Amino acid sequence: TYLIFYSFFKGNQMSYQVCFTPAYKDMLKTLRKNGGEAKNASSKAQIALSEAQLEGEIRVVQRTFHGEDRLPNIEKYRLTDSYRLIVQLIDGVNKVRVFLFLGIHDDAEAWLNSNRGYKYVRNGSDSMVIPVLVTEPDSREIRNFDLESSEEEMSKPLLCCLNDSEIQTIINDSVIIDYLKKISSNDWEDRGYTITGELEKMIPNNNQWETIYNLLDIAHENKFDKLQQMRLIIAMYQEKAKIVNGEELAIALREPINAENFIEYETEMGDFWNEHPDADWDDWMLFLNPKQKEWAKKELNGPARLCGVSGSGKTCVMLHRARFLARKYQMKPIAILTLTVSMKNLLDSLLNRLCGAERSFIETYTIESFIKNILVEKSDPQGLRWISKIVRIDDSSCRVFVNNAVLSIFGSAEFQRVPWNNLSENEKYRFVIDEFTYVRTRLTYETYNEYCTSDFKRIGRGIALPIELRRVVLSALRKFEENLEDKHWVDHDSMTQMALKFQDSNSYKKYKALLIDEVQDLAQNDLRVLSLMENTEGIPLKDAPNGMFLVGDGAQTIYKNGFSLKKLGINILGRSFAFKKNYRNTKEILETAYALIKNFDCSNLDEDEVTKPISPELARQSGAKVKLVKAYNQNKECKYVVDQIKFLTDNGELPGNICIIGLTKNYRRAISNELDQVGFKSCEIKDNVQVGNDIIKISTIESAKGHEFSTVYIIGLAKPIGQELSIEEMTLEASRLYVAMTRACNNLILTYSVTNGHAASPLLTYIEDFCQKEEIR
């Protein structure tokens, strides 16, 4: 049972500490959504939480005194006629409380009965604290019937999860050990009092007997962490662990080892609940731990970089920093830039929750829209009037121009050699797009000729192009851009070039600072034009105090872009920091995702710093293993996913907490149709970024970036048999899959179909040993 701690300051007066369990949080959310009396009860419980923090007492609701002795220092409160609140006062002197249960009266009684006897135990070797079932000698009984385990499980020995050496640390008598190893759950339920009587005669040492009894009792309770509890019971027998309470417990919870289990925040939480009594609990994702808060409010005398593993709170820090700067520089706008429309919508939603009056001075854009609508439209004397169409180099509109370039390049005498004349037509097409994009995102119109010099280093090309071949490519590139200009067409790269052209003569000086999310996916010219922007005082943002805040993770790169901060003159020396703690994913999900990405080199946001991905500090919360599902056609694959979603929603999961990431348009269309047929609502994530509603999200990997969901399905993880990928392509594919996998907080399911010459993606070989495998025929 993990507890979340909150503490905050109100003026100069420190408030009282209050904590609650994730289970309590879920209860609160459920009651709120149920409406009526349940919603009224949840509102009173929220006020009680705030009151306990601000005053150290709960007065808003009436306390009851009816048998609350099943756990020490329990306080039970009557919220309404039907609903009760259970709180534990763990430190009466300092008034530290834990909120444990919220529900109807009968369920509250059942909860107290099922948790009777639990005590907080601190492991002396690492200081970790967890609740453990410790039964006092005078209160022993055969507690509950196990109505959920199968008959096969019930017939297994209770102590089968312990090895012989662990049992022998308590007792060495082989006769007693043989007796213990035969006691099953059925035996414990059917003749428990006979067994305890026989054991008490066989084990005269009280300490040994009490330890054995507690091991059997915990094993029969069959909680998810029973093995951890049992090992702490053994550690208590060896005097390597002990029960803690009161101030000692409160101090133990602040040990670094408990930072994941007992997450402490320094926020104005009491004020928040008083001012926002109807807030959604998803607002808590906006709160910061002390290290995050430090970076959100840090005074920086130049550009800064914040790296971090997936789920480490980078985006949250960025939002708080935007708020901090908007308050600091009153009436001077701050801009936040991100990659996708869906992420922009999410940032807007979170900013609306986080901010007050300063929200008017924080503007959000995608990178493309900022360069188009701010830099080009505001700087070019013609604005956007002369543009007839906005295109992408790899879409159908530009195909004829790219094909002309393919003919020009590969029809030249310079390219009539191995390996160029052995490329397929599709490979030639991709080669031209990749090379054109690389030049156009690295160099300006005025410096294109540098491409044809030995000083220009082409990163990511397995076989370097000799200078005479580069001249051919550059000639074709200039022709391609002439074709666009003749039609008054532009793409993102040409608009960036236009923004650079007008940067010196007509810089748009509206913004005091830029905060850039997912910066690892920006191209060099994107970052160049942004860094050269001047702030409201006429200082380039790359040189201005607090001017640029770059946020990202090189392991989550999904585009073939890249940049060098050194070449751009952006100096972050002494202003770079990395977060390693993951707060989003279960241990199983993060462990599996890292098993994939650790095999590939990545940039540390800057391609001059190529390294292995940051090794994350694994979350302490555990969950189900990642599931890897093999199907024999796409229809069965999609039907499996929808059947699983129906099972989840039938058992309480909200559809809005589920996201399906389809790796192809065909898959996304197929799963949408399958969901429609069984009556599920679904939409693209860019159209609805809210979780907790009744709409299942369908997404590309790009659109899913920055979002998180309780359950994520990644479908279509198959590749044509025999397809060869370069190291660069494999690295990019691994980064993309890593991004998709780490969107899942609790449940992750990967699926693929083996049909029409396809097999599982080669990347799955890195993670299959971490997964639970399933086959659908």
Structural description of this entry:
This protein has 777 residues and is of the alpha/beta class. Helix content is 38%, strand content 18%. The chain contains 25 helices and 31 strands. A seven-stranded mixed beta sheet has the order 5-6-7-8-4-1-12. β2 and β3 form a beta hairpin.
In short:
The protein has 777 residues and is an alpha/beta fold. Strand 7 (83-91) and strand 8 (96-104) form a beta hairpin.
Molecular shape: globular
Oligomerization: single chain
Give the overall average pLDDT: 84
Helical/strand content category: alpha/beta
How much of the polypeptide forms β-strand, as a percent range?
15-25%
- Regions with little confidence, pLDDT below 50 for 5+ residues: 1-14, 264-277
Please give the order of strands in the largest beta sheet: 5-6-7-8-4-1-12
The number of helical runs is 25
* Biggest sheet character: 7 strands, mixed
Q: What topology emerges from the helices and strands here?
A:
Blueprint (H helix, E strand, L loop, with lengths): L2 E5 L1 E2 L2 E2 L3 E3 L1 H13 L1 H20 L6 E3 L9 E5 L4 E9 L4 E9 H10 L3 E6 L5 E5 L17 H4 L9 H5 L5 H7 L4 H18 L3 H16 L4 H12 L3 E3 L2 H7 L9 E5 L2 H7 L14 H7 L7 E5 L5 H15 L5 E5 L2 H14 L7 E5 H13 L9 E2 L8 H12 L14 H18 L24 H20 L2 E2 L1 H10 L11 E4 L7 H9 L15 E5 L23 E4 L7 H11 L4 E2 L6 E2 L14 E6 L2 H17 L7 E5 L2 H13 L3 E4 L10 E5 L1 H4 L4 E7 L2 E3 L6 H15 L2 E10 L4 E3 L10 E6 L1
Parallel strand pairs: 1-12, 4-8, 13-19, 13-20, 14-15, 14-18, 16-17, 18-19, 23-29, 23-31, 24-26, 24-27, 25-26, 27-29
Antiparallel strand pairs: 1-4, 2-3, 5-6, 6-7, 7-8, 9-10, 9-11, 21-22, 28-30
